[in-house]
Amino acid sequence: MSRYTPKLLVCLREGYTRSHLFNDLAAGITVGIIALPLAMAFGIASIPESAVEGARAMGHEISPPAMGLYTAIVAGALISLLGGSRVQIGGPTGAFIVIVYGIAAQHGYAGLATATLMAGVAIIIMGLARLGAVIKFIPYPVTTGFTSGIAIIIFSSQIKDFFGLRMGSVPAEFIDKWGAYAEAAPTWSPQAFGVALASLVVLAVLRKAAPRLPGAVLVVIAASLVVWLAGLPVETIGSRFGSIPRTLPAPSLPPLSFSLAMDLVPEAATIAILAAIESLLSAVVADGMIGGRHKADCELVAQGIANIASIIFGGIPATGAIARTTANIKSGARTPVAGIIHAVTLVGIMALAAPLAGRIPLPALAAVLMMVAWNMSEREHFRALLRAPRSDVAVLLVTFFLTVFADLTVAVGMGMVLASLLFMRRMADLSDVRAISAEFAPTPEEIGELEEANSLQKREIPEGVEAFQISGPFFFGVAHRLKDALERVASPPRVFILRLRKVPVIDATGLHALEEFHDRCRRHGTVLVLSGVQPEPLRVFRKVEFDVKVGRENIAENIDRALERAREILGGSRPSTTPSPPVAAETR
Question: Which CATH code fits 431-571?
Fold first, then answer.
């Protein structure tokens, strides 16, 4: 199926020239070099030292920085091989640090591996179920809130290495973490702080003065040389984690446990949703830069496979990386071959320069991650949303504070629930049930419709007839208004016209309200006439045979026919044997 044909095959079929190869080669090598320090930094920030033993128990003689590298290599290669974007670069990202650290700290690497495997399967199912377009409906305040919250947590997690604090494991909870920092503040290292601060300043200067240069790579190399040549007592990757392996580990699956899997369903769901959102957002950004169009469902399937493979090779969750994808494009990439070369470049660096990677000072990596946090903090967007309607501000702040002080899973869930409730409230505010009989004063909207051909105010409503109009979607949020509006009628009329020309959709609760109202009309000897039923509500009526219950002769195509039918009923004439066919909207 073309929907799931990888973009790599599409590009090769279009014709892959020598020019394409040179561009992809230059871009892939550049992005591979850029990804090296980021992958190791994300691995260190994501995996607490307590979880390393769990990974080794599975047969993976690896360390957190190596886990980040394996993820960038395995997941990065598969996302480019199988994905639906021409230039997407996959690997570990800052967005995952919070959720990965929490799972690994509580359940060990086996729990993280189990949750990621479940998430990978879920992402594949999303793609096969063609949910790629649906993922894009995540409310903007939710994504901004948790992204900004993640940035705060990443920044907080790097204080220990930035200042060289002598302390044990850093608490996972935000407030406890800062309390532990305060207690350990007297143990700070001037040398570590100096290296970190200098690295951060250089990163900021390069970001402004030379944004095309791989700032993280240059800073890490310079900091490593300074620490090594000056003999500074600063912790490095090698001193804390040992040497980095030169090859990928043998593939293996984690010990699977049904009870553990059930406990990790919320975390797996969060990983799946976050991976889907980040990857598709990155693909959309890439489309805008190259003028292309990605295949969302194909991209999701590739992301799911990549996450499963990452765990099999001792990695961590992966997704599309916006910053590295942007660097890939700016370096000249136009096909997925660049992403594959990026993974091969990392393999080559790991094989040839693994011992040198052990000399990288941790304060320099802390500075790199602080810059990552600054870049993903969504400062401008956050401030702009604070000027948005109060409902959007509420969603933003709830998601943000729950991300920081509670848990990302809770934050995303509560943000989505709150956004959905507020959306339903807005839809309810747009819907209305209003009497439009002669004795009721018209609303300002109806006054503006006086010149319309469909205006009921221009028609004579016979005595004994009441007319109501429902405007907007008739769903569970507004169904009660029909009953409330009817209570305004002093005595049951002979005929009740319910005008539905402004009702595009109806749900089960709205249909139930109509059925109850029809039964109430019958008990009082009142005939219900429906006017101007739109196609979708009419389809629902026919499906449940509500049109038969009301009487097809009592479903009129427009208000004139509804009034004519009311006069027939009032006059005692026999009902028309041929019902008027309902249409999408009133024509008069």
Answer: 3.30.750.24
